[in-house]
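Our platform keeps sequence and structure together, in a single record for each protein. Such a record has a labelled line for the sequence and another for the backbone structure tokens. The tokens are whole numbers drawn from a learned vocabulary of local backbone shapes. The remainder of this section carries one protein's record, kept here as part of the documentation:
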Amino acid sequence: MRRTRLPVVAALTAVYLVWGSTYLALRFMVDGFPPLLGNAIRMTVAGGLLYPWLRLRGAAAPTRRQWGYGFAVGTALFLGGVGLVTIAEDVGVGSGVTATAVAMVPVWAALISGFFGQWPTRREWVGLAIGLAGVVLLSREGDFQGAPLGLFLIVISPIFWAFGSVWSKYVDLPDGLMSSTVQMIGGGVVLAVTGFAFGERLPASPSAASVIALIYLIGAGSIVAFTAYAYLLRTVPAPLATSYAYVNPVVAVILGITIGAEQVTGQVWLALPIILTAVALIARRR
């Protein structure tokens, strides 16, 4: 039992702390790179590094069907989830506020699980209602008042991420790290196509801070944290795998205030415990 728990604890620690810091890293990244193309570089480079390494270690090449599902799940996670979050930060939403809204992922995951045969219990429905109340309160935060597009994107992006997280458990994906690799490559390709289609172009000379942020997002945020997250999705129930939402907002708010010099209003401090209460009701049940 101890051997079984240690990898889970290590993976949870990675997604808790590393992903909490990626919200601020994304804010620095968009100072030099467009939101979608910046994330396209992040995902394709991370996946491109992992793929040959896994093949050299004997991992089987994904089938055409697995590549197809990898592209589909990667689109939900990285275009619908990460891409929209990054656009929201690019239009003026702070990293701490963003992380607070994204904390709804476990709540949405519990609801979406119902479409796959595991409907929420009475306690989880209560958690969903509480979480939605927290989102309504958060929508009154100053960043959203000046950026209604950011509010819209922040509300729907966790739904895409939750759907991709739950759906990945029911489709034919490769085993082990190859699963996260095909998702990153697929999501990265779709991000690139979408970014160019919407007129994004790579900068000639991005700032040093944006380059450092992108390198951090590739290494820690994608290769380390997402592979840990993919392992959790295969090993534990989706609401537990997404329980990083407990810690990520706290880490993001602290880093946003200290390093990012962001100002957080009272709505965030009120909405955060409400949303985390909703997450607690669901994660404890699962």
Q: What stands out?
A: DSSP finds 13 helices and no strands in the chain. The mean pLDDT is 85. Residues 17 and 248 are 7 Å apart (CA to CA).
